[in-house]
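Record minuted for completeness.

…
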Amino acid sequence: MLKEIGLGIGLALVIFMAVSGYDMTPFLILGLTAGVLFYVARSRGMLAKNFSATPAAVRPEIKFDDIGGQNTAINELKEALDFIGDQERIIKLGIRPIKGILLTGPPGTGKTLLAKAAAGYTDSVFVACSGSEFIEMYAGVGAQRVRQLFQTARNNALKQKKRSAIIFIDEIDILGGKRGQNTSHHEYDQTLNQLLVEMDGLKINDKVMVLVVAATNRADMLDPALLRPGRFDRQVKVDLPDKSGRVEILKLHCRNKPLAEDVDLTELARETFGFSGAHLESLANESAILAMREGGTEIGKGHFLEAVDKVMMGEKLDRRPSCSELRRVAVHEVGHALMSEKIRPGSVSTLTVSPRGQALGYMRQVPEDDTYLHTREYLESQIQVLLAGSVAEELILGGRSTGAGNDFEQAVQTAGQIIRCGMSELGVVDPEILPPDLRYRALSGIIKAQEKKVKDFLEHVGEVIGQVVHILLAEEKISGDCFRSLTQKHLTG
């Protein structure tokens, strides 16, 4: 009420002075300046107030047993977390407590879940935020938010009578990027400096022991001062799960789903090479959705295989290519499949000419066992499979199309890997100082040699291409077993 009365009196005074002939310019400038300063001060105050309420200072109901496929990361994380639970022992041994743990790895591998499970493992208050929350246009706001973040963790731990708190900062590369890269202003650097100061102030004899856990998939962008011992003492690699890890993750996500008898999670894990935990969760969810669409009461093998295609390629599209385009797509995919089956028998999982995502058709292979080292022979065989689609088009239809553009890009990249790893005729070389014309001749030599091998093979089995294309156009999709029954005689002959 008093505010409204004051505003009314002020407005009346301004009108009276203007009518009386007074120059109002100085008063307007003064009032405008005061308004801007008030707005900035209020904005900073409101931002700080809102931020203090943003972190969720609760104990997450997630355990390490709920996370599959990351046994190495979990064991390394537990070792670091045991320092929180046994403070008396580490004081006797003179051990400096670990102040920070950095989780690095591709997106969707479970870094956030590991941080939440760490809070439950140590019975700590959990405060979560993102690196982008600290960056504002106003100087000093980010540093203020960092101070409030640590204070919020301590206050909530004291309220809940906890001895420890875990602060989780997701996407820390936004907050902790290398200093000096932003020349427009120093807000980024000030915010990072404040985080460094707060971490340096963490001590074992504090009322609340604070541990900072951060996650990023771009560890190379972080400032060296953040990674030195005494701040982020441990870097835990959270990588894509291997085959056994994928089986564990699938079991976790299928616990509440009715599976049909024909579902083999071990076989499904083999089909999902390169999938992260997030991909596998989506796979289980999409397969259940497909079963519900069909009105089924159980999730079958077919639902999972269809879900694999959907997660990898996207949803089926309504658009239909013309008959000539559809035939070209079929020839292209059959060429890939024949070459793949010749190099690795039993490798073809599915052939389809149904448009999905950005592809008009595709051939899906059964992934090999997880491998980390590749020979030149292996890489050359991959190039042959990539080139087989366009070569089949040329042999059967008399010319190539733009549909092979992505195949050629991957073939060139694979050939480049042969050169980089010293497996080409050039021997061990530095690609950065290799003359462009010499690199071009080496790349084209590798690709042309593999293209000739593909052409010789497809000319030998040319008659079977037309047979499989005819069936594929009629059925739109054929399984790997069906493809092998049609081509086995020609491939073994």
Summary: DSSP finds 19 helices and eight strands in the chain. The radius of gyration is 31 Å. The CA atoms of residues 101 and 213 lie 5 Å apart. The longest helix spans residues 25-53.
